[in-house]
Design a protein that fits this description.
This protein is an alpha/beta fold. Helix content is 54%, strand content 9%. It is built from 10 helices and 6 strands, in the order βαβαββααααααβαβα. The longest helix has 17 residues. It starts with a strand and ends with a helix.
Length: 192
């Protein structure tokens, strides 16, 4: 049975290169991050005497095929506000045009993530204490567009093509806001 590791810390990447069949990259990974990660992992895998072409790279993409991206981007900002400030989760958000550390600090302050976790809180506590609007406001539109796959099928296919060029082998199709079977079918058909 294949084993895929869903962690991006240095020790985890070493472990994946030695033993795993693939790597699962969480939501919000930027192209610059993946451009660095994939070749680095292939080198690590090769150094461990393994075939880098047999290793799989899975990336969560938050795909949403739509002609009106505003609502989908707002939803993605909410997800980023919840997930990115968690320990280690912003590691894959690397972009030369943005002060990612500053943005993450602003999100953390609005969401009260560090404060809540240090007090032993959980996701329910995070949601009840957070200022979601302030957190969304802290996320530049250009950054969320960069880490999201939202728009027309043609635009998304182009972004997916870039992932394939980098060496990503698989992507996840996340549930639409209204998880109805026909919406899944429409999105898959639009992208294939």
């Amino acid at each position: 049975m294949p084993i895929y590791l869903a962690a991006l810390g240095p020790k985890s990447l070493d472990l994946a290169a030695r033993l795993a069949d693939g790597l699962l990259v969480a939501d919000f990974a930027t192209i610059p991050f993946l451009e660095q990660l994939v070749p680095e992992m292939k080198t690590r895998i090769e150094c461990n005497g393994r075939d880098p072409d047999a290793f799989h790279f899975y990336v969560r993409t938050g795909i949403s095929v739509t002609d009106d991206s505003a609502a989908a981007l707002r939803y993605r900002k909410t997800l980023m506000a919840l997930l990115a400030p968690l320990p280690g989760m912003s590691r894959q958000i690397v972009h030369p045009d943005y002060d990612v550390a500053g943005i993450m600090n602003d999100i953390d302050a609005a969401m009260r993530t560090t404060e809540t976790l240090e007090a032993g809180g959980n996701f329910i506590d995070l949601r009840s204490r957070a200022d979601f609007q302030a957190a969304r406001d802290a996320i530049p539109d250009g950054l969320i567009e960069n880490v999201s796959y939202i728009g027309t099928a043609d635009a998304i296919r182009a972004k997916l093509g870039r992932l394939q060029e980098i060496g990503v082998t698989h992507v996840f199709l996340s549930a639409p806001e209204r998880p109805e079977a026909d919406l899944f079918t429409q999105q898959i058909q639009a992208l294939t």
